[in-house]
Amino acid sequence: MSIDSSLPICIAGQWRLGRGERYASRYPATGEVVAWLNAADLQDVEDAIQGAHQAFLHSGWAQRKPHERAAVLYRIAELIRQHGEDLAQLQRQDNGKPINETRALVASAAGTFQFFAAACETLEETITPSRGDFVSMSLYEPMGVIAAITPWNSPITSEAQKVAPALAAGNAVVLKPAEITPLLALQLAHICDAAGLPKGLLSVLPGKGSLLGDALTRHPLVKRVSFTGGTRTGKHIAHIAADKMMPVSLELGGKSPTIVLDDADLEHAVAGVLYGVFSSSGESCIAGSRLFVAQHLYDPFMQRLVDAASQLRVGDPADERTQMGPLISAEHRQSVERYVAMGLAAGGCLRLGGERLGGPAYERGFYYPPTILEGLSNRQQVCQEEIFGPVLVALPFTDEAQLLEQANDSLYALAAGIWSRDYKRAWDLGRKLQAGTVWINTYKQFSISTPFGGWRDSGLGREKGRLGILQYMEQKSLYWGMNQQPLAWAGLSREVAP
Ligand code: NAD
């Protein structure tokens, strides 16, 4: 197929062109077109949901034994691994992340399917302690059609984290990837087909969230929305869900503090802070973007941090040595620049970066360098709003009680980091920090077996973990009567009954 032809999309078991407008997925490093697509429109949403509903009712997927569903998910994991390099290269082009990072994301997606296959075939339902002449059981049923809505910053990983547990639970899924990064979601649908997933159980609808995501969320046949994205969009979805009495899980934004205590191992702390905020070019919900450093360490620590940050290799995502690729789009880079200007206008000063990189290597892509601001307070806008770019604000502290107050002073509460050699201090602080995940002497490390999610404006619900599958199921209690006599209330018994 020529690059100018539109890619078919997957709607209710058929690969065909979307009925919406034609648009291009572009490589953020050069602006070149990677693929053309026709977005889905509202009729496509309806078709995908009806197809998913029919597949849920009639394909037999929900009735398959857990180990049989698991076998398909294991095959999906295997196929992701087999096509791993192609997928990683395509993802690099779709969203501009460095190739080493996209390889890790693809491997993580395969691991997620494998994990939820295992969770599916080992999920236990329970016989609960009985308080009468009955056997009582707690069981789980699939819900029906699930809408999965994902952002652009970690395609295939975000998608796997929703699609794998939702399918494992016996549901059908309509997946809406971010408009600008649709390619990996489409590849995932091809892989699911090849692995033998019944037709119609997974549809993929590229296009505008305000149209398609909104319609999916409102649709009466959609029984749950699993959303990852910005807090504003998440709240919009939560309002619609409230009217439908529909459960939602919302993985939203962050403004995470990292804290360097005065007894920290500086080499570890510098490496961790750098990775925490600048990897993925800061386009990460858990970016450690507010840095609190003990006052008496502040100058030497900042010097080491600035020196190390200035050595980070920003450039071609195809080069294996690259640590930071371009930002996702010209528009997003402008938004990052506005935040840096705002910080400077508020009295901040630049320790590093803050200006576009010059030279032929950076001309066509949306590159932005690692940027470090200081001289600001935690209350200022750049410390309160998510920038979603490679911008760190450093804040010295003297008093630990005040530090805790400031670290927790945010609408967001997704993650936090602590660097200290004193495990008792770190334990105390770690318990008092308000965040869904706290890393101690490490940062941005993940395990699919550990739940993940945010407090407050960072979200609702948890993904991952063995029990992550349960959010895509309805709990049901079943009672089996074991009484020899009729229930006593009616006053009947064998002796008096005719
Ligand atoms: P976004 O909210 O703009 O979009 C996310 C998804 O929602 C996209 O697929 C989009 O098309 C869709 N959407 C947009 N409007 C919608 C509507 N009205 N109804 C339904 N769906 C709609 O977010 P983004 O810019 O793509 O992603 C960046 C955000 O995602 C950041 O805030 C980041 O912190 C967050 N994020 C959170 C996590 C997490 O796990 N907590 C992970 C990655 C990204």
Spell out the blueprint of helices and strands:
Layout: E1 6-7, E2 9-11, E3 14-16, E4 22-26, E5 33-38, H1 42-58, H2 66-82, H3 84-95, H4 99-122, E6 126-128, E7 134-142, E8 145-149, H5 157-168, E9 172-176, H6 183-194, E10 202-204, H7 209-218, E11 222-228, H8 231-244, E12 248-251, E13 257-260, H9 266-278, E14 290-294, H10 295-310, H11 330-345, E15 349-352, E16 371-374, H12 381-384, E17 391-397, H13 400-408, E18 412-413, E19 415-419, H14 423-432, E20 437-440, E21 455-456, E22 459-460, E23 473-481
Parallel strand pairs: 1-5, 8-9, 8-11, 9-10, 11-12, 13-14, 13-19, 14-17, 16-17, 19-20
Antiparallel strand pairs: 2-3, 4-5, 6-7, 7-23, 12-22, 15-16, 18-21
Helix pairs in contact: 1-7, 2-4, 2-6, 3-4, 4-5, 9-10
Bound molecules: nicotinamide-adenine-dinucleotide.
Bound molecules: nicotinamide-adenine-dinucleotide
- Give the number of DSSP strands: 23
Helix content: 25-40%
Structural Rg: 25 Å
Q: What is the global morphology?
A: globular
Query: Beta-strand level of the residues, as a percent range?
Result: 15-25%
User: Which parts are unreliable, with pLDDT below 50 for 5 consecutive residues or more?
Assistant: none
Strand order of the largest sheet: 15-16-17-14-13-19-20
Largest sheet: 7 strands, mixed
What is the CA–CA distance across the termini?
Answer: 79 Å
The assigned structural class equals alpha/beta
Q: How many helices in DSSP terms?
A: 14
